[in-house]
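In keeping with the milestone schedule agreed at the kick-off meeting, the structural modelling team has produced records for the first pair of proteins. Each record is given below as a sequence line and a structure-token line. The laboratory manager (R.T.) confirmed that both were archived under the project's standard naming scheme.
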Amino acid sequence: MPPFCYALLVRRLFVLLLLSIIAGGFLWYRHALGPVDSMSTAERPVKISDGMSVGGIADILEEKGIVRSSTAFHLFVRLRGVSKNLQAGNFVLSPGMSAAEVVWILRTGKAREIAVTIPEGFTIKDIDALLAGKDLMEPGAMLDCARRCDFSSFEFLPPPKGLAPRGGRLEGYLFPDTYYAEPANFVPKFFLERMLGEFRKKVAEGLKDDFRKSERSLHEVVTMASLIEEEAKTDEERPVIAGILWKRFDASTGLGVDAAVRYILEKPAGTLTAEDLATHSSYNLRRFRGLPPGPIANPGVASIRAALRPQPSDYWYYLHGKDGKVHYAVTNDEHNANKARYLR
């Protein structure tokens, strides 16, 4: 092959290689700017601090799973010439957003609200951990406010005397529901007041007729409902278990609900030892008869209704077997037989 032909071939190959690299780079860049997961509706709080560089912002976004590539995002911001327009603050971003959408939010400072679902049966400590885990506040801020903040405008709350120091007056009265919070303006006291407000609307006022017909006080009902919340696994079980527990309460035979001593010992799981069950606390319902001094969780409406409308039965005992079902018994002998059959 003549030298000039060889040189022309090399030149053409070099041009093709260069074009391939450019095309590949463009395709990578375009792909990297797309959503991490276009189907995702997840919401993740992201904090951008004052003075943070574009590279630092890009790294945080990649770490949080908001953008595919910090390098591509950094390049995108530079090419758009908006690196000086990104604002500091708390933002709610999603893996379903493209890089362009993320940049628009960071430029405009639009911080959307984040959905926070408080499940039935959560304690104040659980709620505190949930909110801290969503970067809405520092760990412990909710617990501290529950103990120290003024909630005297909520007339249905019990006096704090004798209640567990963990949740104080508020434990049991925080209505489980889905709430919306703005990360940039989150205040623990305001969030607690919203939950108390929902309790007032849905329970104290919403079930007013049921309370009027009941012979129990609001505090007794909510405390019993918190036990039912921990003991029952289905809505069908709640009224039956409520009937059993109220029958034991009225007969002063002792409730024997171990969830209460777990609450005071802060031992939600694992085997209870002999030492645990010997705990000298009015929350230990094996040693002390009657209800505990206060709720051990924040019950949902179904458990509160069950406490207000217990289902009468001949049963005095119940247990949840390894078969996933609840087994009732009239006598202690029947209950022991159920233990042998369904728990061992």
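The second protein of the pair:
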Amino acid sequence: MKILVATQKPFAAAAVNGIKEILETAGHEVAMLEKYAAQEDLVAAVADADAMIVRSDKVTPEVIAAAPKLKIVVRAGAGFDNVDLAAASARGIVVMNTPGQNSNAVAELAIAMMIFMARTQFTPATGSEVSGKRLGVQAYGNVGRLVGQKARALGMEISALDPFLTDEQIIAGGADPVHSVEELYACSDYLSIHIPALPATIKSIGYDLITRMPKGATLVNTARKEVIDEEGLMRALGERPDLKYITDVMPDNYAALQEKFGLRVFATPKKMGAQTAEANINAGLAAARQIVDYFATGNTRFQVNR
């Protein structure tokens, strides 16, 4: 089988070497498409691919239509909203992610962001400590639990909301369960977002939720830009000069937010959650192993378009 590794933002060299070794040892051919300039390059490259590994690359209906032999796409990472699941399912193409491989990297970044904002972006101004504050975690999965674990080590109290977990499971994970998103925002000095961008969650976090947060609270987004109602965020920050927002996914209105609110807002210039050498390698190798296993045994354990 021909496996296309299509990464506009390339894997680390160690990851590329490991991916090639795993796939070639299993008898597959590997084609690399790195740092490509335009989406048309991906459309052309996928024409004879049986499988594809991507990172944040856009697997659109056009890409899928151009790949008559394509059987599986693996997104090296947890999020998969860059892959058109409906178009893939219509063709019978399996789409997988690699859950857990980037989790620690994202969790460490979330904690670093909290401290960065608590210390007024490391300017000489007097900051505050996170110890003794309450952290709310919106979605208590792989990343959320790690954020909670690391925050507890810093002396924070943890609340969590996850509709897919029981109270007992959340308590076992070291957090106090809450039962509504309104309750979570109202009790959180820091709120760490880990929900996916789905029709039900897009623009779900806006003025009403943000203004429920306690005085001096900070909203931390290492999830997706789309879950934030940016107009509502702007309005909330304007009415509540005590609130802060930091994100790993730059808002469309970031220039206006910075101009109006200065050190109360910050966005990384490019999504950095999984940008560690360890996560880069882990996710790439996991993607390669999943493809090998799929062709060898039909294993679809991490399929996201069932």
